[in-house]
Design goal:
Blueprint: E1 6-11, E2 16-21, E3 62-65, E4 70-73, E5 76-77, H1 78-84, H2 87-96, H3 102-113, H4 120-127, H5 135-149, H6 159-184, H7 198-207, H8 218-230, H9 238-247, H10 253-264, H11 272-283, H12 289-298, H13 318-334, H14 340-352, H15 354-358, H16 366-375, H17 383-404
Antiparallel strand pairs: 1-2, 3-4, 4-5
Helix pairs in contact: 1-8, 2-17, 5-6, 5-10, 6-7, 6-17, 7-8, 8-13, 8-17, 9-10, 9-17, 10-17, 11-16, 13-16
The structure holds acetyl coenzyme *A.
Length: 432
Amino acid sequence: MTTKETLSITDNRTGKSYELPITDGTIKSLDLRKIKVNDTDFGMMTYDPAFMNTASCRSAITYIDGDAGILRYRGYDIAELAEKSSYIEVAYLIMNGELPTAKQLEEFTTSITLHTFVHENVKDFMEGFRYDAHPMGMLVSSVAALSTFYPEAKNVFDEKNRRLQMTRLIAKMPTIAAWSYRHSVGLRYIYPDNDLPYAANFLSMMKRMAERAYKANPVLTRALDVLFILHADHEQNCSTSAMRGVGSSQVDPYSAVAAASAALYGPLHGGANEAVLRMLHEIGDVKNVPAFINAVKDGSAGSRLMGFGHRVYKNYDPRAKVIKKLADQVFEVTGKNPLLDIALELERIALQDEYFVKRKLYPNVDFYSGLIYQAMGFPVDMFPVLFAIPRTVGWLAQWEEMLKDPDQKIARPRQIFTGPDLRSYVDVEKRG
Ligand code: ACO
């Protein structure tokens, strides 16, 4: 039998049949609009809240097989990149599609390093935040404000200009992130040290006190760089979809990155590692783990098992595997995080429990990352910020891919209207 790459649909309302082309295992939603009961009918749509089964773009950046637990950037396995590469090299790969030559890497590193400083006015307005402002709130607002410093950034189709803004964003995110932290603890802001690589420079801006130059522990610097690699991109997640959706209006990339960062802030996304830590504190002791798991299952815990489950992974998150190993190296330097035992016990029990097994709920990237961040001395409020820094390159690469894609237009979903039909206005004194 010869097979055809088409889908036949019969509309039982009219008895008519339609043949729709299948490309890459998908049909075009717009093809469904041909299916009408009469000429005045708008045509068939799909109802897909939360985009559970809708491909919103074609992308060559990140590949995920959620059932097999595979994550690749531009074809390279995440575990291999985490072992052999650096964040800056991975950023180049994500932006350009290929690993850089030695010369390209040097040039890229230099251009990022030379853009780490921000205008002094940025410092001034950051100082205007309340003394206890959440660093993520400061980051979101300060990144948005950068658009006022680079008005030419709105020329999003000028490739040279666009690439300059992308470089600026990757370079300046750690500076703004570190300053948000310094502000929230009342410490003076530390300028970038251009002699230091990306992760080491961030640690210097976070931690330097009176010393002339900050020397981070190399194990911790490498651990942070690996965490940055693991968080660099993750295809069409909530914040990336926000970046693409907001960017589709052709707004400048600073405003779009601010929107993506805001999406990342939520507890179901980049805020989850913060939520994991709070949950582990609340559990307090290994002996309380079984009761907590039961409370999650019967809904009385008031929350899910944070750091577990994923829209795409129905297997162990490959990033969580790398992080678990990384945790051992970090804890050798910092001493073990006392919450680790609670986390390990939670994982052990959950992975055997029918509720979690049946729903294919495994630890995700956020389950162990918070423990490492905490052991490295980062406050819980900084966790989503530590996610936003490396994810910036993913957002930007996806945004650029969207701008260059002739299939893309301004994002504008449809709705099924469920409100009232036309009614006449009633004067206030006549309302019951
Ligand atoms: N704990 C307990 N039950 C869970 C959990 C969890 N962490 N996650 C999902 N479930 C249950 C749901 O209650 C649901 O059960 P039901 O079928 O009996 O109603 C079932 O598993 C399916 O859950 P959904 O909410 O439909 O799954 P969805 O794909 O929409 O959610 C999400 C994915 C948001 C990540 C979810 O698993 C969750 O809330 N996890 C905790 C928060 C978290 O760790 N977020 C980080 C994600 S990774 C990242 O953003 C970097």
